[in-house]
Write a structure and sequence with these properties.
By secondary structure, the protein is α/β, with parallel strands linked by helices. It has helices at about 1-30, 35-50, 95-115, 135-140, and strands at about 55, 65-70, 75-80, 120-125, 150. The chain has a five-stranded mixed β-sheet.
């Protein structure tokens, strides 16, 4: 297990400047739901730089995407979700720039294991989460049907446990 932890730290360290720049670019360019053209572009560029194949406008949503990194066959399909829309008059008060950064960083780190252990890593761009909830639309279209697990993070002022 210690070797895998070291691999994760190395992957994140390698992508650190890209991830910090991504969060800052999204934060400095707030866009409302389904207007996140810049944010989707910033994220797609980072994912492509780190070996992902990006499908823009995924599921018929103009500012969504699906990024794929496939390793050798025989492992799990893991999805990381990235939100990146802003609130009108507030900007990124809910930290969606951070959610995007963590989703992308997690995907980049886990891509290393897809090559080594097998599996497929996906990063889904889920726009308009503040007002329209694109994850619901994407799910209804089957976007997550082939995933073994889909994960995301959300910043909070305290520790949260969704299993209470």
């Amino acid at each position: 297990m210690e070797k895998q932890k070291e691999q994760i730290v190395e992957a994140i360290d390698h992508a650190k400047a890209d991830l910090a720049g991504l969060s800052k670019n999204i934060h400095d360019n707030p866009e409302l739901g389904f207007e996140e053209v810049k944010a989707a572009g910033f994220i797609s560029d980072v994912l492509e730089k780190h070996g992902f194949q990006v499908q823009k406008g995924y599921g018929g949503l103009s500012t969504s995407f699906r990024a794929d990194a496939k390793g050798k066959e025989g492992g799990p399909t893991i999805a990381f979700l990235a939100e990146y829309d802003a609130l009108k008059g507030v900007g990124h008060g809910c930290g969606h720039n951070l959610i995007a950064m963590v989703g992308v960083g997690s995907g980049i780190a886990m891509r290393e294991f897809a090559d080594e252990l097998g599996g497929e890593i996906y990063v889904f761009g889920t726009p308009a989460e503040e007002n329209l909830g694109s994850k619901v639309q994407m799910s209804e279209q089957g976007a997550f049907d082939e995933m073994d697990v889909a994960m995301m993070s959300h910043p909070a002022g305290e520790n949260a446990d969704c299993f209470n």
